[in-house]
Amino acid sequence: MLPSGVFNRRPQEDMAVIRTRAQWLLLACALAFLVTLGLYAPGHWMNWLILVGVYTIAALGMHIMTGLCGQFSMGQAAFMALGAYTTAYLGTTYGVSPWITLPVSGVVAGFGGLIFGIPALRIKGFYLVLATIAAQFVIMWFIKHQSWLGGTYGIMDMDKLSLGGVELAGPTPEFWWLTLGMVVVMLFFAKNIQRTSTGRKFVAVRDNDLAAEVMGINLFRTKLLAFFIGCFYAGVAGWLWAHYLRSVQPELFTFQLSLWFLGMIIVGGVGSTSGAVMGTVAIMLVDKAGPSLSTAVQDAFPSLKYQVSGAVSLIMFALVVMFFLMIEPKGLYHRLERIKLYYRLNPFAY
Amino acid sequence: MDAVLAQGFLVGGVYALIALGFILVFKSSGVLNLAHAQTVAILSYLLYQMIAVWGLPSWLAIVVIIPLGAVLGVLIERLAVRPLLGQPFLSVLMMTLMVSFLLEGVRILVWGADSFTLPFTPRQGQGWLGTVLPDWVIPSSALAFVVAMLVFVLLMLLFRYTKVGLSMRVVAADHEVAQSLGIRVKRVFSISWALSGAFAAMCGVLVGMVFTVTPVLGDTVLGKGLPVLLLGGLNSIPGAVVGGLIIGLAELLGSHWFSAMKEVIPWIVMLVILLIRPYGLFGEKRIERI
């Protein structure tokens, strides 16, 4: 809702991704802040920032699949693994340049998504959820049992990424800028999809797929396209993660991670692009507080067994998502909109 | 070969028992309770705590664990699932998953990586059960199989002939219709979750006996239960039994020839079935109107 006295005079204004001057200004400030953050953030925060970037891209894929098209997936981590392994394998075995494998990773993950998305035409709800859980286990089992993919050890010693003579590796400002750039591009695409006919088809299928089909939308094509795009995002995220760590292991891509992505879009607000980003940041902030909390827990109860940090991070994640499901089911994005609305309408309540 | 078949059949019975736990809640409240697996795991660890740490006799521990399971089921329903009544299904599904994370976290905190063999597990060549059965049958699987079949019959009777079972079916079909017919929906929910909790405790005893109590018990239960559930159809009790037997046999036969494939065979069978019969072997196809 626009404030009183502000109108969209042309269709272009109505369609624009960034609508007002204030938004342009805020965006510029935020980008400038994030870019310079790379220069003075301490090492562990740098690591955190890059991980947030990687997860944001994967969560955006979930947002397109689940938030826009309503196709629930609990196998996003496995599709990420497809992308990561593609670049790692092609890079270490055939020496293909990582910049060529970037789209290849995305497409491989996308095709993986297509294969497991085919049942989605006929099933939905619980059945689809279970099919994507099967995708998670089957893909990860396949990767673990292939000797040319390194089995349980994964692929080590990938070459450093370089762009125009600058080496990009590890938690450095350069890698953070690459991550940031990719997040911005992927975010733009995700936003952009929502104002195209494809995006509106996705939403129609989510809201009622039978009605959408009656209106002439090709359900099979639309659902598979949503799977392809969502898994393409996962593949790109996997590519970025693989080049950040310069190695891939099967243990990185667990079922739990897939659920994390689902939790991220729930916390942010299902169906909103900025919500996916907010959810990722929120969940990762909670996760960042995990180690200090687990040492506190360990000090308070010394009789506890080992693995306290893993258990504490599990419990905290569960509690945060439960809180949002019960108290704020529409997510952070909705709350932000409410706050904005309050200030726009002030002093009147409506 | 005979031994493999028999073993597959018996293991299939255990899988059917696991899947029945999911179906019990789904059939009576329309919630797919993914926390069931971790409930089973935490209850079998509780059994371990009672027997090995507090030194209770086994029979007393089993008698105590079943009402405890019922209490846990009711607690989950009251605190986590009931506040979400009427929300979209993803919320409820996610909530049960989060409950399962919570239970797993608590289990890791308290018991860590302990593993344990329940002392009353019947062994080959020992005790009454071990000597009666032929030596290619593992006694604990056989016992679990018998209990699974017994439970199957009892559940069929419950849903078909009792008033409680009938009200559960009505509630699952439509909450509002059930309410207007004078059924106390919330009470039916409590009853079905209590039943499922008690069922989880029993599963904990039997599955803990078959697979031994290890940190991956919950994942095993989930990994075997879900394919069976889907194969049979989400709301069919005979489906769970047939599905369990099929998955058990397919897994044992498959791993007889390709030993590395054991853990994914259930999932692959499930995916194939999904492509051929999307609502499982016995599931009801939902007819939808716009």
**Main pleated sheet of chain B:** none
- Strand proportion of chain A: under 5%
Quaternary structure classification: heterodimer
- Write down how many β-strands of chain A occur, each being a DSSP E stretch of 2 or more residues: 2
What is the averaged pLDDT score of chain B? 83
The radius of gyration over CA of chain B amounts to 19 Å
Helix content of chain A: over 70%
Strand order of the biggest β-sheet of chain A: 1-2
Biggest sheet layout of chain A: 2 strands, antiparallel
What does this structure look like?
Chain A has 350 residues and is an all-alpha fold. Chain A contains 15 helices and 2 strands. Chain A has helices spanning 11-15, 21-40, 43-68, 76-94, 98-117, 126-144, 173-193, 197-207, 209-214, 219-245, 255-268, 273-288, 290-300, 308-327, 331-345; strands spanning 161-163, 166-168. Chain A has a two-stranded antiparallel ribbon with strand order 1-2. The longest helix of chain A is centred in the middle third of the chain and has 27 residues, at 219-245. Chain A is globular. Chain B has 290 residues and is mainly alpha-helical. Helices cover 74% and strands 0% of the residues of chain B. The chains are: A mainly alpha (350), B mainly alpha (290). Chains A and B meet through helix 6, helix 9, helix 11 and helix 14 of A and helix 4, helix 10 and helix 12 of B.
Brief characterization of the structure:
The complex is a heterodimer of chains A (350) and B (290). Chain A has 350 residues and is mainly alpha-helical. Chain A has helices spanning 11-15, 21-40, 43-68, 76-94, 98-117, 126-144, 173-193, 197-207, 209-214, 219-245, 255-268, 273-288, 290-300, 308-327, 331-345; strands at 161-163, 166-168.
